[in-house]
């Protein structure tokens, strides 16, 4: 709970239409770290502020407030470990950022372990000036990985649907993409009809989603670089829940062209693009497919047992196994990158939460969220956190919770109701940094 | 109910005109025939059409019960369910009668859900609700080609609220004549 710091100073850095972040709860034992404001000819604190906020959001770090620092080193030779030990710091991050004559910026950083009194990580990143936030997220990733041993996921993006003027006849549905901290949102597509189920291709270059732009549902594949949209010719009935396979070659989806909702897979690059039917259950709803990390099976929601529950089907043998037994509503499951842990929407006493389950020990469902009407869980690529949609005082907001349930924060938007979040895979938005 | 069809067509139309002013989509019980006002001239100047079309729809193309009242076009469901009530089946039978008498008329059936649960599952559940209406109508003689279904899941609530009263209005199938 130590991370309940007032981040109002940082919030003022946020643009108006971005998602804000309200931290509810952090880890019980966050690592104390001093992130010294990076020396700079201008934009003081921009880089270190973003890094600080990334680490705070992870719930695993408790950055020292700037006014409590005894010194502000920006060169390795100026770091006096005794000063930081006195303040109880375990790590110190320093850096500087230089404006180059070619219009780009170079940011250099050094991370020190205070008790070992040595530098443990350093790097230098050069990029266009407009990419300063990308640089900061990248440094946060490297610091996070160095200290926790887990790859950082700050240099990622989220997709979500923003609905303006909800409940009126002039509602606007906007498919938005923002940084993982909700900053720099941009609209990828906009329509007056519902949009839902956005999902990423594994290389992060394409997305798929469901659009009602013609009045009927259709699956759209959109290239992010060019913004070229391709609407898959819709079949009668449902066309929904698109999910790219781990190798990016296939799309799993739901079609009800044969009379009721069934799961299909389709090769995206094939000239004829014929959907291959995976489930065969005439009276049941089969929907919300998600791939296992090896790409050999799908998990999905089905009410073939009378109530929605999660199942797994082997794509080669069609052997199907029920995965959830507790509760009368379990839906929209996603597997962690380890393929062993499942998160899904779980109804308990009429309240919809996000729950976690270990498929090997059958531990769970463990409810992770304290909000209600929770849906659409989407995992960060490192599997440490998930983003989901919920409601706060009647408004649709996004929220994030760590897989251990300890860290929680909300991302409301002042622009309208937000929903249907989808966390990107790892994105290589900057060329590799050079260690110093 | 059938005996109402033998009523004087002109008085039926008058009744409809009176009803339109306070029309409710939720009328389900046959009410007493309203008294025909004596001095309503404009209707009598129109030649009365004797063909069925004239009594099946009002002048705004809304479907009518044999009594001349507007026929309900929204049908409500329990949570997680797609079962139609006995009352709804009686009302849908009247829709089926209208559609079998008017083979040129087409219908879009929309399926909707409340906001609880997941969006894709709700799209499927909304489709199941629309299909429940559609199969009843086809079993009652309506041609498959007259019917189109679409599910909006939880995307288009009738009531934007977040309580049981709103949710019960949002779990619905809606029939729309084209």
From TrEMBL, chain B:
One of its GO terms (biological process) is cell division. Residues 64-178 form the OmpA-like domain. PANTHER family: LIPOPROTEIN YIAD-RELATED, STATOR ELEMENT OF FLAGELLAR MOTOR COMPLEX. Keywords: Cell cycle, Cell division, Cell outer membrane, Lipoprotein, Membrane, Palmitate, Signal. HAMAP family: Pal. SUPFAM superfamilies: OmpA-like. It is found in: Cell outer membrane. PROSITE patterns: OMPA_2, PROKAR_LIPOPROTEIN. InterPro entries: Bact_OuterMem_StrucFunc (IPR050330), OMP_bac (IPR006664), OmpA-like (IPR006665), OmpA-like_sf (IPR036737), Pal (IPR039001), Pal_lipo_C (IPR014169). Pfam families: OmpA (PF00691). It comes from marine metagenome. Gene3D superfamilies: OmpA-like domain. This is OmpA-like domain-containing protein. GO terms for cellular component: cell outer membrane.
């Amino acid at each position: 709970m130590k991370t309940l710091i007032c981040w109002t100073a940082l919030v003022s850095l946020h643009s108006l239409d971005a998602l804000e972040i309200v931290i509810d709860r952090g880890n019980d034992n966050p690592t104390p770290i001093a992130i010294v404001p990076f020396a700079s000819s201008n934009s003081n604190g921009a880089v270190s502020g973003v890094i600080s906020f990334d680490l705070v959001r992870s719930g695993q770090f408790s950055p020292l407030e700037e006014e409590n620092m005894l010194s502000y080193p920006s060169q390795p030779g100026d770091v006096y470990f005794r000063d930081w030990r006195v303040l109880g710091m375990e790590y110190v991050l320093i850096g500087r950022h230089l404006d180059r004559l070619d219009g780009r910026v170079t940011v250099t950083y050094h991370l020190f372990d205070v008790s070992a009194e040595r530098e443990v990580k350093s790097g230098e990143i050069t990029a266009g000036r407009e990419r300063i936030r990308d640089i900061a997220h990248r440094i946060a990733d490297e610091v996070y990985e160095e200290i926790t041993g887990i790859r950082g996921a700050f240099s990622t993006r989220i997709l979500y649907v923003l609905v303006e003027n909800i409940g009126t006849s002039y509602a606007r549905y906007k498919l938005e993409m923002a940084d993982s901290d909700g900053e720099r949102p941009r609209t990828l597509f906009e329509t007056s009809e519902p949009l839902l189920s956005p999902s990423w291709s594994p290389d992060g270059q394409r997305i798929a989603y469901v659009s009602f732009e013609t009045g009927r549902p259709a699956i759209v594949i959109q290239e992010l670089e060019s913004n070229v949209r391709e609407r898959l010719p819709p079949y009668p009935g449902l066309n929904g829940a698109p999910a790219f396979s781990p190798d990016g070659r296939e799309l799993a989806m739901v079609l009800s062209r044969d009379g009721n909702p069934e799961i299909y897979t389709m090769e995206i690059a094939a000239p004829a693009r014929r959907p291959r039917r995976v489930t065969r259950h005439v009276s049941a709803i089969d929907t919300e497919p998600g791939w296992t990390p090896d790409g050999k099976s799908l998990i999905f929601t089905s009410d073939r047992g009378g109530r929605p529950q999660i199942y797994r089907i082997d794509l080669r043998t069609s052997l199907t196994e029920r995965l959830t037994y507790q509760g009368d509503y379990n839906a929209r499951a996603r597997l962690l990158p380890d393929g062993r842990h499942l998160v899904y929407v779980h109804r308990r006493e009429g309240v919809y939460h996000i729950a976690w389950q270990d498929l090997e020990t059958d531990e769970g469902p463990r409810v992770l969220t304290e909000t209600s009407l929770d849906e659409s869980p989407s995992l960060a690529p490192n599997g440490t956190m998930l983003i989901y949609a919920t409601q706060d005082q009647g408004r649709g907001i996004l929220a994030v919770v760590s897989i251990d349930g300890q860290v929680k924060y909300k991302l409301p938007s002042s622009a309208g109701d937000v929903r249907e979040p989808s966390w990107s895979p790892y994105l290589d938005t900057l060329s590799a940094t050079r260690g110093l | 109910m059938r005996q109402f069809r033998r009523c004087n067509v002109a008085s039926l139309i008058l009744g409809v005109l009176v009803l339109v002013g306070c029309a409710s989509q939720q009328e389900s019980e046959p009410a007493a025939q309203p008294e025909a006002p004596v001095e309503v001239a404009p209707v009598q100047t129109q030649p009365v059409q004797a063909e069925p079309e004239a009594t099946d729809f009002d002048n705004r193309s809304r479907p009518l019960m044999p009594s001349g009242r507007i026929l309900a076009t929204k049908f409500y469901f329990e949570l997680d369910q797609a079962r139609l009530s006995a009352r709804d089946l009686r009302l849908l039978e009247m829709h089926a009668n209208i559609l079998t008498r008017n083979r040129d008329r087409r219908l879009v059936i929309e399926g909707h859900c409340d906001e609880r649960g997941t969006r894709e599952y709700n799209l499927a559940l909304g489709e199941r609700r629309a299909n429940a209406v559609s199969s009843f109508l086809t079993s009652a003689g309506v041609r498959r080609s007259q019917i189109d279904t679409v599910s909006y899941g939880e995307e288009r609530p009738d009531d934007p609220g977040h309580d049981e009263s709103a949710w019960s209005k949002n779990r619905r199938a809606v029939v729309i004549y084209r």
